[in-house]
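Throughout our pipeline, every protein is held as a single compact record rather than as scattered files. The record that follows is passed on verbatim for readers who wish to inspect the format:
___
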Amino acid sequence: MAILKTNRGPYKFKQLDLFLGKKQINKEIARDNILDIKKILDKGDLYFGLINGTLLGAVREHDFISHDEDTDLFVLSEEEEKLKLLFFDMKESGFDLIRYDRRGLYSVMRYGEYIDFYIFRPFQNGVRYSGSDYVLEKHLSNTIEIYFQDEKFRVPADYVEFLEIYYGNNWQTPIVWTTYDLSRFQIFREKLIVKIKRALPNKLFEKLQYAHAIRKRELFFYRIKAISY
C-alpha cells in the first residue's frame, strides 16, 4: 500500500502497473469519467485542461482517439496541493488513485479507465516541464475553451502550435503506437520495468530521468526553432 502525503492527511492507495499497450480506451466509460471528473475539479476551483493525446483527439477527431489508452489533463505545479486534496472527493465518486510517478504524474481510475494528471513545473523563463515533456508556458496560461464530449474544456489558445511542437508537423496524420496484442513475455517485461523504476532510489531515478529528458528537451527546442522560421 502506497501513501500520498496531503494537507488533509495521508491518502492510502494501491499502485497499479501502467504501461503502453496495457489496454485500449473504452470511449463510453472515458466520456463518463472525464465529465464527472470535470465537475469535481470545477467545484474545487482547480485550473486544468486537455493535453497530449486527449487534446489531439479533441482537435483532430472531436472525440477520444480510438487507438489511445487513457485521458490526459494538465495541472500547474502551483495547483498540485489542491489536486491532492481533491483525490479524496474523487474517491467518493468511485475514482481510485492508482499511480503517483515522481516525474510529476498522478493517475486515477474508475471502471477500468484511467485519467492522467500531468503536473507542469517551471523549467526556465517561458517553459514548463512534466517529467520529460516540455511545453511553452503560454500554452498552459493563454487558453480558450472548446467543446469536447458536449462540455467546455480549457485548451491552449494556439493549440495548433502546441500540437506541432509536441507531435511534429504531421500531427494531423493518425499514428498507431501499439496494437494492444502484447505477448505474455512483453507484459511481464513491462510490468517488471515499472516495478524497478518505482523501487529505484531517488538519486538513481533522477539520473536516468535526466538522460531521457535531455533527448526530449532537444527535440522540443528543435521544433520550436523550426516553427519560428
The mean pLDDT is 93.
